[in-house]
Amino acid sequence: MNLADMRSIVRRELHDEDECSYRWSDDELDRHISRAVKELSEHMPCEQTATAATTAGSREVDVSAINGRVMVQAVEYPAGRFPRHFQRFSLWADMLTLLGEEVPDGSNAVVYYGGLHNLDAAGSTIPAYMEELVASGACGYAAVEWAVYAVNRINAGGTQTMRDFLDWGNEKLRHFRGELRRLGRKNRVRARALYRPYDAPVSRSIDYGP
After folding, report:
1. Which end of the chain, N or C, is less packed with Cβ atoms under 10 Å?
2. How far apart are CA 67 and CA 18, in angstroms?
3. Shared domain check, 10 and 54
4. What is the pLDDT of residues 107-156, one digit of tens each?
5. Are residues 69 and 19 in the same domain?
6. Which helix (H) or strand (E) holds 95?
7. Quick one: DSSP state of residue 195?
8. Computed over its alpha carbons, how large is the radius of gyration of the chain?
9. What percent of the chain has pLDDT over 90?
């Protein structure tokens, strides 16, 4: 799957396959596809790792060089041990702080993070089972945009055409976002872990108040 393949799927869903009279230009569809991919990345980021340098005697690790970072899942330090040694950590902006007993000595740490998915002319990092869902999101954005554009304009299909596009587009977006919430990382149950996540668990029995 590459960007051209995804654009073709979106055009087919939108019934916009007449090359002589496209309703949406390639650039417009690419923008809607990009928006859907970014939304997918927020809920189901691309799993990646990166090496980050530490400073001897400091618990702070600069992760600003990790481009396209959506979230940090785990930090391995020291790197290369077996079994892997994962550290508790906190994250503020681009500064990651190791909270374990071991103070860095200047050797590298490995950051396990979720990043933005890529979809371009060369290929894609989007899982195959998510491709149709991304296409649905892009279709929804395209249809809603066209409906807004068509307000107070003459349309060969009549005034109902704008309403039909708007309703169809919103339905596509409801399905897209509903599936992202259902499948996304925030709804996953962790059965076991080799590390302790940086965010504390939320009690289901104690009300701490506002």
Report:
1. C
2. 38
3. no
4. 999 999 999 999 999 999 999 999 999 999 999 999 999 887 665 554 54
5. no
6. strand 95-98
7. S
8. 22
9. 71
**Amino acid, single-letter form, for residue 106:** G
Question: Do 14 and 104 belong together in one domain?
Answer: no
To the nearest whole percent, how much of the chain has pLDDT over 70? 81
Residues with Cβ within 8 Å of 110's Cβ and at least 6 positions away in sequence, in order, are: 49, 50, 51, 52, 75, 76, 77, 79
DSSP, residue by residue, 33-92:
HHHHHHHHHHHSPEEEEEEE---TT--EEE-TTSTTEEEEEEEESSTT-SS--EEPEEEE
Q: According to the model, what pLDDT value does residue 159 have?
A: 53
Nearest to 68 by CA among 86, 42, 92, 90: 42
**Helical (H) or strand (E) element with 129:** none
Question: 179 phi and psi, to 5 degrees?
Answer: -70, -35
**Structure pTM?**
0.78
User: Please, what is the Cα angle at 30 between 47 and 181, to 5 degrees?
Assistant: 45
Give the tens place of pLDDT for each residue, 68-112. 999 999 999 999 888 999 999 999 999 999 998 889 999 999 999
Same structural domain for residues 169 and 180?
Answer: yes
